[in-house]
Design brief:
198 residues, 12 strands, globular, 32% strand, five-stranded antiparallel sheet, mainly beta
């Protein structure tokens, strides 16, 4: 049975250190819609409460600070907030892209990924999210976007595949599997380059 086509962004999966933490970030004026699962970067400013502001991380971003895992309600009318619409403000809950954190993401397009791609790097593709579910459309670029996986320093390191019974992948090392759930770590993380400033 083929894997389901499901673009849902990045999902915190595990941590080598044994814990996954979050932080609050401000969204002052989103350049585009922001969804749960979007990779984000600091925008270089903050809000009146002293929180850093974020926006969606572009493909090939070199300073990814985290992944959105939820939104904080601004009042009774915001309890059902699924996403932050373009040009709007809000508060996002973010899991930082620490070197110890592993995320799960779906592969982009029909190229697929093979076991011998583990250890290579890839960028993400910023797809459109779903305004009904609030889920991201971000995927991992497997060659149909701007850049195929390579040994060079792209944004995400392919760590492995999610070993679930419903996540089928070829056991032949060079055979690509489409729509497999991939485990990744962020290589181009803000937290690894903090000395460079905002």
């Amino acid at each position: 049975m083929a894997n389901a086509t499901a673009d849902y962004g990045f999902v915190p999966y595990d941590s080598i250190s044994g814990e996954i933490r979050t932080f609050e970030a401000a969204v002052l004026v989103a350049a585009g819609d922001l969804f749960v699962g979007d990779a984000v970067e600091f925008s270089g400013t903050g809000d009146s409460q002293g929180r850093a502001s974020i926006d969606a991380a572009a493909a090939a971003a070199a300073r990814i600070c985290g992944v959105i895992v939820g939104f904080k309600a601004s009042g009774p009318d915001g309890l059902a907030t699924q996403y932050i619409a373009s040009a709007n403000a809000g508060t996002a809950i973010v899991v930082p892209t620490l070197s110890t954190t592993i995320f799960r993401v779906n592969g982009h397009g029909a190229t697929g990924v093979a076991l011998n791609d583990i250890g290579l790097s890839a960028d993400h593709v910023a797809g459109s999210g779903d305004v009904l579910t609030g889920k991201s459309g971000f995927t991992l670029d497997l060659g149909e976007g701007a850049t195929a996986p390579t040994a060079n320093d792209l944004s995400w390191l392919i760590w492995g595949f999610d070993r679930r019974a419903d996540n089928e992948f070829s056991t032949t090392v060079s055979t690509n599997t489409i729509d497999v759930d991939i485990l990744v770590r962020c290589k181009e993380s803000y937290w690894s380059t903090m000395s460079q400033g905002a």
